[in-house]
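Researcher: Here's the sequence for the chain we discussed earlier.
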Amino acid sequence: MKTYLKAIPFVIAGLLINTPLIAGSHEDHSMHDHEKMTSSASEATGMGTVHKVDAEKKIINLTHEPIPTLNWPGMTMDLPVTKRVDLSTFKAGDKVHFTLKMGRDKQYRITNMKPAEMKNH
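Model: Thanks. This is the structure I predict for it:
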């Protein structure tokens, strides 16, 4: 019995060390902390695929390719859009090009978005 009790701290330590690795293995990064991905850029462009549009809340959920200017890896996330972006023209599955700009509140918003042009092969 004493051997089992002595092993408990090691088991707990192992779980604590491995939990961030397991938690970080998911594909949906909608809650990703961009503050840790530092960049001095206030504006950047990206390309992605739309998953969900909430025109009422002015938010779009998309999976974007890596955005090197911001040091962002490719991920799926919710992004707010400005008044200038007409979300009624977009739907799930659309491929888009977009421009992000940092606001005074230090949050990036999509300021311009258009359908991605299809390349002819």
